[in-house]
Amino acid sequence: MIECSNITKTYKSGDIxxxxxxxxxxxxxxxxxxxxxxxxxxxxxxxMHILGALDISTTGDYILDNKNxxxxxxxxxxxxxxxKLGFIFQSYNLLPRATVLRNVMLPLVYASMPKEERExxxxxxxxxxxxxxxHFYHHSNQLSGGQMQRVxxxxxxxxxxxxxxxDEPTGNLDTKTGEVVLSTFQNLNEKQxxxxxxxxxxxxxxxxxxxxxxxxxxLIVGDERNYKKRKLxxxx
Length: 236
Prior knowledge:
Elements: E1 2-13, E2 16-28, E3 33-37, H1 44-51, E4 59-64, E5 67-68, H2 74-84, E6 85-89, H3 100-110, H4 115-128, H5 145-157, E7 163-167, H6 175-192, E8 195-200, H7 203-206, E9 211-216, E10 219-225, H8 227-235
Parallel strand pairs: 3-8, 3-9, 6-7, 7-8
Antiparallel strand pairs: 1-2, 1-4, 4-5, 9-10
């Protein structure tokens, strides 16, 4: 699904240049659950913006579903984000005065989908994200943090994206609630074969994925299969 070859990103401010990414190369297969882990300033958020077609690399190639995203126009990047990508953020980014169902339906409104079909797809996405139907008509500001993140997950899934990008999705949650949200990602990957990239600075969060790519100072310093997760799953 994803092929990244020698991805670099340099930011310029006057005569000063800052290298955020220094030549990253890796592949991600369809159906993989991958964590990209690193401390603040490592370049992981910059990489997430490139993978999410929110920015383009300075040099190198980013191939998504056989299309070189690095060479696309702004309009073409917007189409990639609309048609192929689902985003989940630490801060949820929900409309506080809209119902849960309305929040999830919004991406389909922009796609000009008929109302009945929008509602049907939104309901199914919420069920897949593990939210009880009793909450569908609550406003998002009436929900707990974990419930809001499940709504955000449903919204990311409603367009049936090829790739789901989650940027520090448990950052605003307590540990117990975070575990519930991370289990939701695992279920989406294992039961629906969703391709998920999870951005985090926490090792225990990354260990919910099947593969962990570690970034430091703009370079990949580790790329490992998470056999610990597989062992725990086999025991359970």
